[in-house]
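Why do we bother with holo predictions? Because pocket geometry can differ from the apo form. Keep that in mind while you read this record for pyridoxal-5'-phosphate.
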Amino acid sequence: MRIYNFSAGPSMLPLSVLERAAAEMTDYNGSGMSVMEMSHRSPVYQAIIDKAEADLRKLMNIPENYKVLFLQGGATTQFSAVPLNLMNKNRKADYIVSGQFSKKAADEAAKFGEVNIPASSKDRNFAYIPHVTEFSPDADYVHICWNNTIFGTTYNYTPATGDIPLVADMSSGILSRPVDVSKYGVIYAGAQKNMGPAGMTLVIIREDLIGNAREGTPVMLDYKVQAENGSMYNTPPTYAIYIAGLVYEWLLQTGGLEERERINMQKAALLYDYLDSSKLFRPTADRECRSLMNVCFVTGDPEKDKAFCSAAAKAGFVNLKGHRSVGGMRASIYNAMPAEGVEKLVEFMKAYEKENG
Ligand SMILES: Cc1ncc(COP(=O)(O)O)c(C=O)c1O
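The structure, written out:
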């Protein structure tokens, strides 16, 4: 039996993807072996990674002058790779701090150069996204965290950085709605929320930003080495890339990212509309920057939050406990969470409020 899993990541995958992977588990496409058992240098595997890239390019409408890399190390490794590769002209970068992960990214970059923080939303426990219009003119790049997994906020504008490359950690928002890739220098994302299993990290990078890694950059973190070797300088996360490829195919078959955005807006509205009208629960993120993917809410009383999470788990809605820095609850409703899961959760919450409100 499948239950409704609201985990922030690793998180739900589309059932049809899991079923297909199960069917292909021991014999992929007549090869007589599992994708896990294949040489990454074999033609059969090359076809898998090529298709994954082609489908992703189609889905996100990635311009020709961008490279797609399938790497390892999680988004956290990109916190180091980005400054090592990009913070090299003036050794300066701007980091907008809108939550815990952007703070971590900024702290890591500060090991490699001067980090300026044009704005932070720490003053209200990251309940909003700062609207920034001015950047250091000599910054090598501007870094944002596009969707804040812990605080349930998301950018509803693209910072206009002019000629300064914009770098975005899209770990928890990627593929949830269309983005104009050409506005970014680098987009990166761990796979384990909206793309596949943990173990694969996607990097989309504009070609002119490749080839500038500073001396001493570890070979695995050098975008040029990874780009020149088609993400295969060493053994890539083969199985995770295969599953991500199945997810990209599923997204294309179900209408692409415009359709996904429509569905995600409906799903999120169901939950936010109820939260706005509830007397027991209250959403924590400011209305204009509420995330479609991570919906954070509280009762205002940690004991009541705990009681709700445990009652919800008993009813089949699991992993609703919020991150310790916000408390309360967080319902992560990534692409693979069916609308029915959100509808049932809202029904449950309404009934719970009637009894316990
Ligand atoms: C926005 C964001 N950035 C970075 C990370 C860290 O990712 P990883 O565990 O892949 O290093 C996470 C993980 O939850 C995240 O949500």
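The chain is about 35% helix and 15% strand.
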